[in-house]
Design brief:
The complex is a heterodimer of chains A (169) and B (635). Chain A is mainly alpha-helical and 169 residues long. Helix content of chain A is 56%, strand content 8%. The chains are: A mainly alpha (169), B alpha/beta (635). Strand 2 of chain A pairs parallel with strand 1 of chain B.
Chain lengths: 169, 635
């Protein structure tokens, strides 16, 4: 069983099977690059992920492990027929996985999933964020996402007027 | 550096012999040993010797420590050579109990990449009404919201708001980033509002990507010069032009650009759609001039999708001729009808079509012509829409054998008018349609249900063999033969998605009985679906009525339900994750279906019921019982 060491930004090493790691597009490329550059075909690849801290990396690996037998969807499946999400479905496990998380952690997971190219995880986390936007007022959204209005002059008023046209016509 | 251990489960399935040889693991066991040593020493140092029980504990610890030391004396040298930082708790990837609530470490609102991912991944999935609101959150959301609006929002300019067009143009003039790019103009007199239209296009023209024109009405007016100078020549970035209807006198004129003038080139124009007016009594006569059509096609050197809705074959021939002259490689073609002659012409052009839609074939169409067209497309075509074959008299059926369509994924049959039809024979899914994913039999409400014929051609395992690839089936017409329906599971063993309109109660019951593996179901009910609650729950009509009449809801518990549910019910669809029921005002889905059936659909994540008669309490009940991501109930 071939293994790979994945090291987080804060120096934690995770020893995982290559089969599992390869479900991340980024890790797959890294493992392949390592193979090409290494003379010893038996050598164990070591991959440093400088942007992801241990706790988040652990969550990503945990998710990958749970979903290791899912079919790998082509990256553009969603765009192609708009049905990718429905086919995936969100499992009970995923819901339990995300339920205790603070929005900030979900955000970090989104970044990690994006960086490691784990489409399924990116999908479910984005969906969660999506649910924090639909039907909310502008102020509610700003509070949830800790965003401040950075409009200048009459930009906000201009946008409001455009929105009115948009709704009425 | 410390290491995170994998738990035993993670190694299950791994070759343990190979694994124990692994140097890393040995190293790992040493690290964990070292950690235990340090931990023990720490405990001893920190403990206060105050009572006997603690003394005992410490004694145990010390002896354990000694034991460990003596056992691994040799390895200590190695151990000491490994640098270990402060004591850190060890993580296990797969042990949920160890997944304590993680604290956020970044200020996500300040993260530029995160903001980018959110706005680009999420905004495109939000409903337009939310996108509009998101534009007001902050500047980066505003920018992405603008992009989404330009992609999705179509603004209609017509007699209702034409008076405000100048105001609109003025508003957009001060916009930092005009958020509208798709417009539909029509139903007003252009000449009267010329200045406003000019103003509008001088502000928005360069942003506009889609224009639809609809001026064929007695209340509106447009001249050829206006069409050209006010609309077509002011949109350099046009991607789609939809000429829905133009006034007769305009389309009869010879051409948009006088001979000798240079035809302007809209290089981004990919999609052109032209509808004939159908104002003339003789539908074979076009109201369009060949010159106008030719000019429109000539403006678009990079055209890839063309739709020409006309019955006039001169016009179809002219379109094909213009395409040939301009050497345009069409990818999608939609035609209302095609004559035998034009069919041969189209075959000769050998377009690499991915999508082809033909509503009607001419009476004189030879089966070989259809087949040779399909043969030229056999390596490119992904989607094919046919309606039936149009005949004047009692002609024979048009029998066509599919060539092997290597990429065909979607096959749709639409709106047949009579029972002389296009018939596909012989048909073997495996040989001829090896990639087919979706079949659809569409039919307009109120037309006679002859479409059953095409259903019968395709859902007939004895002749076609099963299709291992078809996952989705749509039947938008009354299908009332249970016998025919029963062939479905055998024909399409991988069927996951069923869309059914106007099916009888018997058919709906047959769905419960024969298609237990469905993952998505779209049911559109009709006036004929009486007692739909009884059908959904599998509780016979008499029992259902009695429960409703005597208000016995509270008496029906799990045990009772088991006894009274004597017919197949929706509960047998154990894998159903999406359910959409479009109710009928006479036959509404009520609380009865929800409490006695829908709440048992454990895989359900998305539920939509329209024309429903469902109380708030029951809605809450469903939220409790089901893990719904999407719930929409409309009265």
């Amino acid at each position: 069983m071939a293994l790979v060491r994945v090291i987080s930004s804060d120096g934690a090493a995770f020893l995982v099977s290559q089969r599992l790691a390869k479900r991340s597009g980024k890790l797959k490329t890294e493992i392949e690059t390592f193979r090409k550059s290494s003379d010893n075909s038996e050598a164990q690849p070591e991959i440093r992920i400088v942007t992801i801290r241990a706790e988040i990396l652990r969550l990503v690996l945990q998710w990958l492990q749970q979903h290791q037998n899912d079919p790998v969807l082509p990256a553009n499946q969603n765009e192609q027929d708009g049905r990718g999400d429905a086919e995936m479905g969100q499992s009970q496990w995923d819901r339990d996985f995300l339920a205790p998380m603070d929005l900030g952690i979900v955000m970090e997971l989104i970044l990690a999933a994006n960086h490691l190219e784990v489409k399924g995880l990116l999908d479910i986390t984005c969906k969660l964020v999506e649910s924090k936007i639909t039907g909310r007022t502008v102020d509610e959204i700003r509070t949830a996402f800790k965003l401040k209005s950075d409009f200048k002059g009459n930009e906000e008023e201009q946008t409001r007027l455009e929105n009115r046209w948009c709704v009425e016509n | 550096m410390y290491r995170l251990k994998m738990t035993d489960e993670e190694f299950s399935g791994m070759d343990m012999e190979d694994f124990s040889e692994d140097e890393d693991l040995q190293e790992e066991s040493m690290i964990s040993l070292k950690r235990q040593l340090i931990a023990s020493e720490e405990i001893i140092r920190n403990l206060r010797l105050s009572n006997a029980s603690q003394e005992q504990t410490i004694h145990n610890l010390v002896s354990a420590l000694e034991k460990l030391r003596s056992l691994h004396l040799e390895e200590r040298k190695v151990l000491e050579s490994i640098k270990i930082p402060n004591l850190l708790s060890s993580f296990r990837i797969s042990d949920p109990s160890s997944s304590k609530v993680v604290q956020p470490a970044i200020d996500y609102s300040q993260h530029p990449l995160l903001n980018h991912i959110i706005v680009s991944n999420i905004m495109q999935r939000l409903p337009l009404s939310d996108v509009i609101r998101c534009r007001l959150v902050c500047q980066s959301w505003w920018g992405k919201g603008n992009e989404e609006l330009r992609k999705r929002k179509l603004i209609g300019i017509n007699y209702r708001n034409i008076e405000n067009l100048s105001k609109f143009a003025k508003l957009l003039e001060t916009s930092g980033d005009i958020p509208f790019a798709r417009f539909r103009f029509g139903l007003f007199v252009v000449n009267t509002h010329r200045v406003a239209v000019e103003d509008f296009f001088s502000v928005c023209g360069p942003v506009i990507t889609h224009i639809a024109l609809c001026f064929a009405n007695q209340f509106c007016e447009i001249t050829l010069e206006e069409l050209r100078d006010l609309f077509l020549l002011r949109v350099p970035n046009l991607e789609k032009l939809d000429v829905e209807r133009l006034p007769l006198k305009l389309t009869k004129e010879l051409s948009l650009f006088p001979p000798g003038t240079k035809v302007p080139q809209l290089r981004k124009l990919k999609h052109l759609k032209i509808w004939d007016n159908m104002a003339s009594d003789n539908r074979m006569d076009s109201t369009y001039s060949i010159g106008l059509l030719h000019d429109l096609i000539s403006m678009a050197p990079n055209l890839s999708k063309l739709s020409v809705y006309t019955e006039c074959q001169h016009l179809v021939a002219a379109a094909l001729k213009s395409l040939e002259e301009k050497r345009i490689e069409l990818r999608e073609l939609r035609l209302e009808s095609i004559s035998e002659e034009n069919l041969l012409y189209l075959t000769r052009l050998r377009f690499p079509l991915k999508m082809l839609r033909i509503e009607y074939f001419d009476t004189l169409t030879a089966p070989e012509s259809v087949k040779s067209l399909l043969t030229t497309l056999s390596f490119t075509l992904e989607e094919l829409h046919f309606s039936d074959y149009r005949v004047m008299n009692h002609a024979e059926n048009l029998v066509v054998a599919f060539p092997r369509m290597a990429r065909l994924r979607v096959l749709k049959f639409r709106r047949p008018w009579n029972d002389r039809r296009l018939l596909f024979y012989p048909l073997s899914f495996k040989e001829q349609l090896p990639c087919l994913k979706k079949i659809s039999f569409q039919h307009e409400q109120g037309s006679p249900p002859y479409c059953i014929h095409s259903y019968n051609d395709f859902v007939n395992p004895e002749t076609t063999g099963p299709s291992e690839t078809v996952e989705e089936l749509e039947i938008t017409h009354e299908l009332d033969s249970v016998l025919m329906f029963r062939k479905l599971p055998e024909s399409f063993p991988k069927l996951k998605i069923l869309k059914s309109t106007d099916s009888s109660n018997e058919i709906i019951r047959a769905i419960w009985e024969f298609l237990p593996n469905l993952q998505e179901l779209y049911l559109t009910l009709s006036i004929s679906n009486r007692n739909i609650d009884s059908v959904i729950t599998g509780i016979p009509v008499e029992v259902y009525r009695q429960i409703c009449k005597e208000n016995l809801y509270s008496r029906v518990d799990g045990n009772v339900l088991e006894i009274i549910r004597t017919d197949p019910s929706i509960c047998s669809l154990k894998r159903l994750s999406k359910l959409v029921i479009e109710g009928h005002q006479i036959n509404r889905v009520t609380d009865f279906s929800c409490s006695f059936a829908l709440i048992f659909l454990k895989s359900l994540t998305s539920l939509t019921i329209t024309d429903a008669d469902i109380t708030e309490d029951c809605r809450d009940l469903m939220k409790i019982h089901l893990n719904l991501v999407h719930l929409e109930i409309l009265p």
